[in-house]
Design a protein that fits this description.
GO terms for molecular function: oxidoreductase activity. The chain is α+β, with helices and mostly antiparallel strands. It is built from 10 helices and 11 strands. The strands form 3 sheets. Strands 5, 6, 9, 10 and 11 form a 5-stranded antiparallel beta sheet that branches. The chain is globular and about 60 Å long.
Length: 371
């Protein structure tokens, strides 16, 4: 098999990487330059979330997951994957809010290196089979007790969250999502609640993936596709959500302090900005704040995305599924409460929130764009 053919196979495998709202914001293409065959990866502006992800944290995490999937495939073929971050990776805030990828501004270049070292535990079949489950999960606090050394990039840690605190944070995050009109509109744009939706088998969040009852999906589907229905629905939901958000914020001030447990089934991936990133020096590039800005170098968040995918693949190999809860760090109120619960320092940043456990029902497959 030629390197170009293997790279094309890796592009197909990496398409199974996770992304927020299943937007799949990457646009890879196999090229040949002076260094030989490579894959250049650009970002599709129209597949990002400018309202919900204003600082591209989710984009960077998904790109990291994409790279990790490709690395698993390369290792299975006996090859190392060499990843080069390009200048455009540090200029994601200059992207337009919509439109196609610009192939002349790739953010990453990956190519095949020499023989792979120690093979990762995960296999290409694990990458293909890994899935998210938003139903009931039977958790096991020991799922990450045997996490291989090096699974987490330097400066990363996995912190458990008290179950009662977690339930409140998830509820507050969901309410806060609909309390902010642009974020709610963005979510509705990526919902695919009927097979008649043109994107149903391509991207987004389907009724099957969300485990919505069929009558509710039929009722809500027109709202996601027709502005004349969506606008009044969002106005009503937004008003109710803002009222509920205020109530939850007031209640949060009276929550009894619960220490974070030593182990758990609800997890937060935390990066320490003081650890810096390769080639970027130490310390955060800007102070973390509670509107989603990470304060971290882009390469460090990219590496965190690779680590997050390793965590999810490790859980999959143990028979577990994951349920992401990015709303907890997307919404300022629960984000601040989470930081207090974990006792995070100024340089520490919560990047991803998720639960693990054995699914109690059939796990649906999320769609992917054709490669």
């Amino acid at each position: 098999m030629t390197d170009a053919t293997l790279l094309a196979d890796l592009v197909a495998l990496a398409a199974r990487a996770p992304s927020a709202h299943n937007t799949q914001p990457w646009s890879p293409r196999v090229v040949t330059d002076a260094g030989g065959p490579a894959v250049e990866v650009a970002v599709v502006p129209g597949r990002t979330l400018p309202a919900g992800d204003p600082t591209s944290r989710d984009v960077l995490l998904s790109l990291g997951a994409w790279v990790e999937c490709a690395a698993v495939g390369a290792a299975a073929a006996g090859r190392e994957l060499v990843v080069e971050a390009l200048p455009a990776l540090g200029a994601l805030d200059a992207l337009p809010v919509r439109g196609p990828a610009n192939p002349d501004r790739p953010v990453l270049r990956v190519r095949l290196g020499g023989a792979a070292g120690a093979a990762p535990a995960a296999t290409p079949d694990d990458v293909r089979a890994r899935a998210v489950y938003r139903g009931g999960l039977t958790g096991d606090p020991a799922v990450y007790d045997d996490l291989p050394a090096g699974a987490l990039a330097p400066g990363l840690s996995l912190r458990p969250v008290d179950p009662a605190v977690f339930a409140r944070l998830v509820r507050w995050g969901g309410v806060g999502t609909f309390a902010r009109r642009p974020v709610a509109e963005e979510l509705l744009h990526w919902l695919r609640l009927s097979p008649q939706h043109p994107g149903y088998v391509r991207d987004g969040l389907s009724d099957r993936v969300l485990l919505l009852p069929a009558p509710l999906a039929r009722l809500a589907a027109p709202v996601t596709r027709h502005r004349r229905l969506r606008d009044p629905a969002l106005a009503v939901l937004g008003g109710l959500a803002r009222a509920a958000d205020g109530v939850l914020a007031a209640r949060a001030r009276t929550w009894a302090a619960a220490p974070a447990p030593d182990r758990g089934v609800h997890h937060v991936l935390v990066a320490d900005g003081a650890a810096g990133a390769p080639g970027r020096g130490s310390g955060p590039s800007r102070a973390p704040v509670l509107d989603g800005r990470t304060g971290l170098p882009e390469e460090q968040v990219l590496d965190a995305g690779r680590s997050l995918q390793r965590l999810w693949l490790h859980a999959h190999r143990a028979g577990h599924a994951v349920a992401p809860h990015s709303e907890v760090v997307d919404v300022p109120g629960p984000h601040a409460a989470l930081r207090r619960h974990l006792g995070l320092g100024r340089s520490e940043v919560a990047l991803a929130v998720f639960s693990t456990g054995r699914p109690t029902g059939e796990v649906p497959r999320s769609p992917r764009l054709p490669v």
